[in-house]
Write a structure and sequence with these properties.
Blueprint lengths: L7 H7 L4 H13 L6 E5 L2 E5 L4 E7 L4 E4 L3 H4 L10 E3 L2 E4 L10 H13 L7
Amino acid sequence: MQYNATNPDDYLNQLDNDWRKEKLLWIRNVLLGYDALDEGMEYKMLRYGNKEKSLFHLNAQKNYVSLYVGETQKIDPSGQLLEGFDLGKGCIRIKKSLDLEGTELKEFINKAVLKWTEGLDTSC
């Protein structure tokens, strides 16, 4: 889904108060814990990165929440950290039934941020 938001607060205000908003806010809070990441808007989605380059995009879809990360295998070659997730090209799909606390998504995000801050390529 696309939201016609001009800033993150506007984007969040447009979301329905349902499980998608809950999951999106959980991921957003993890991302906001990194000083290296600024929050903004890009492609009508939440964007996390710096002025020069984006690392993550976050968006609520109709049936899932998408965390766009580039090439997941560059970050987690074994795929162990994203076990149980529905993966697409460059994105992680978070569905209603997935308990984020029971996953290693925080560790995956941490590895992605570390690689990105070291200047390593995580893009598709």
